[in-house]
Specification:
Elements (H helix, E strand, L loop, with lengths): L7 H21 L3 E5 L2 H10 L7 E3 L3 H6 L1 H8 L21 H9 L6 E4 L3 E3 L4 E5 L3 H7 L4 E7 L3 E2 L2 H23 L9 H5 L14 E5 L10 E6 L6
Parallel strand pairs: 1-9, 2-3, 3-6, 4-7, 6-9
Antiparallel strand pairs: 4-5, 5-8
Length: about 240
């Protein structure tokens, strides 16, 4: 008997089709890209891209945490990944001093490899990201010799307009709320999106939507610097 309540095959097919299109166009835009079905495969793929003994930095990314590559790098290769947003067990900053966090964030520009997630990936092969601080998008665009972007297929959208809408309506409110509830950033509690879940294009002093970068590809001399791993799961925000 056909189980009409189980649409897992259809979901997998849908993700596969969209990811295949995005991968083709990311490559056309001079970025390396590949699609894997699971976070376990994503971990293995990312680790295979990072040689032993190199300097690795990362940007704040739930997806990077969910596939576990930083933990794997630090435990199996005795490597410390530079992470300005490192957290304690209670969610607070491991480095509470802002100047110290900035110094660690700047290490990304001299790192061999930069690990990061993405707010959105378009079907026509573009990356769209919005930052509050700017450290993540700036290292994505310039500095480290290799950038590895990991994104779940839930981040794939039609075009840049849809990407910006996804950031405003999904990623930014949820991320701001995450910082408020999990990271004890009480100052975020007064932001409209944290209160209501909706973006009102505010000018709150702690607004996290400050720097938006659209990566349309790479110049030929930078071909392959950005490496995108799309994962057939819902990952990140």
């Amino acid at each position: 008997m056909v189980d009409e309540t189980d649409i897992s095959q259809e979901i997998r097919w849908f993700h596969d089709q969209r990811a295949t299109t995005a991968v083709k166009n990311l490559r056309r835009n001079n970025m390396n890209a590949e699609y894997v079905e699971t976070r376990q495969e994503a971990l293995a793929t990312v680790l295979s891209m990072i040689p032993a003994g190199v300097k690795v930095a990362r940007g704040d990314s739930m997806t990077v945490d969910q596939i576990g590559n930083v933990t794997a790098l630090e435990s199996t290769r005795n490597m410390k990944v530079a992470d300005p947003m490192e957290r304690n067990a209670d969610g607070t900053f491991h480095f509470p001093d802002v100047a110290q966090r900035k110094a660690i964030a700047r290490e990304a520009f001299t790192a061999d490899v930069f690990l990061v997630g993405a707010n959105a990936v378009t079907l026509d092969g573009k990356l769209v990201n919005t930052d509050g601080w700017g450290n993540r998008v700036s290292a994505l665009t310039f500095g480290p010799d290799k950038v590895i972007v990991v994104a779940g297929t839930n981040k794939i959208v039609k075009d840049v307009e849809a990407a910006l809408e996804r950031i405003r309506s999904v990623a930014a409110p949820m991320n701001a709320r995450r910082h408020f509830t999990k990271h004890q950033r009480t100052e975020f509690g007064d932001m409209p999106c944290v209160k209501t879940g909706s973006c009102v294009n505010c000018n709150h002093e702690w607004r996290i939507c400050r720097h938006t970068v659209i990566t349309e590809g790479a110049m030929v001399r930078e071909k392959g610097r950005i490496n995108v791993v799309l994962v057939g799961e819902d990952l990140g925000i």
